[in-house]
């Protein structure tokens, strides 16, 4: 509640402030809807990517078990790794209402590995399975980050919209009404005083 004098200019200023706050609330409400729609779409994409990642994870686990049975833990730990980076990560950045969004894509490059002393199809399959798992993790990580940022911005926007709707606007409406009543009383008193002055004259 403001402690300013209840004047006509204050009433006009409150009316403009109320109009601006209502426009701000409408904007924030629409922003919430857009963010919710984007979160829904991103969640569907995340679910698909998570299912793909889970499939690759199961395949990697099976391949690892088979390779361990063939070589043992020590034998598999010294099996030659791929030389260099075999997964290229490409990020495409965009923005929605100020929220940074990323699309991550991974491309697996075929690289030659040093020859193994005791090569086996199980170890080769294990290596390929973990490369595929790393490739599946890239878009999933990007989608997960998108969901976190969208959710954080949605909550922040919702808090602001609720603050305007539930706190700021009611306070402005209350002060606006109080000033209107006070000004009406002042006008009545002034009219009665004028009428009484004419009657005395």
Q: What do these coordinates show?
A:
With 201 residues, the chain is mainly alpha-helical. The protein has one domain (9-200): Helix Hairpins. The chain is built from two helices and two strands, in the order αββα. Strands 1-2 form a two-stranded antiparallel sheet. Helix 1 (8-77) runs antiparallel to helix 2. The radius of gyration is 34 Å and the shape is rod-shaped. It starts with 7 loop residues before the first helix and ends with a helix.
Brief rundown of the structure:
75% of the residues lie in helices and 10% in strands.
Question: What does the main sheet amount to?
Answer: 2 strands, antiparallel
In CATH terms, what is the architecture? Orthogonal Bundle
Strand element count: 2
Q: How far apart, in Å, are the first and last alpha carbons?
A: 42 Å
CATH top level class name = Mainly Alpha
Strand content range: 5-15%
Judged by helices, strands and strand pairing, the structural class is mainly alpha
């Amino acid at each position: 509640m403001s402690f300013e004098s209840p004047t006509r200019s204050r009433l006009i200023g409150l009316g403009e402030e109320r109009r601006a706050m209502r426009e701000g609330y409408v904007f924030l409400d629409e922003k919430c809807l857009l963010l919710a729609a984007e979160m829904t779409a991103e969640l569907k994409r995340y679910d698909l990517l998570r299912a793909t990642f889970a499939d690759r994870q199961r395949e990697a686990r099976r391949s690892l078990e088979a390779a361990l049975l063939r070589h043992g833990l020590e034998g598999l730990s010294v099996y030659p790794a791929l030389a260099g980076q075999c997964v290229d990560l490409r990020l495409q950045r965009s923005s929605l209402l100020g929220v940074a969004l990323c699309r991550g894509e991974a491309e697996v490059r075929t690289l030659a590995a040093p020859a193994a002393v005791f090569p086996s199809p199980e170890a080769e399959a294990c290596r390929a399975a973990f490369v595929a798992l790393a490739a599946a993790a890239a878009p999933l990580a990007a989608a997960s980050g998108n969901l976190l940022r969208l959710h954080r911005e949605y909550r922040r926007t919702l808090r602001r919209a609720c603050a305007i709707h539930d706190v700021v606007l009611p306070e402005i409406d209350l002060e606006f009404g109080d000033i209107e009543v006070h000004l009406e009383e002042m006008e009545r008193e002034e009219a009665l005083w004028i009428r009484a002055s004419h009657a005395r004259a």
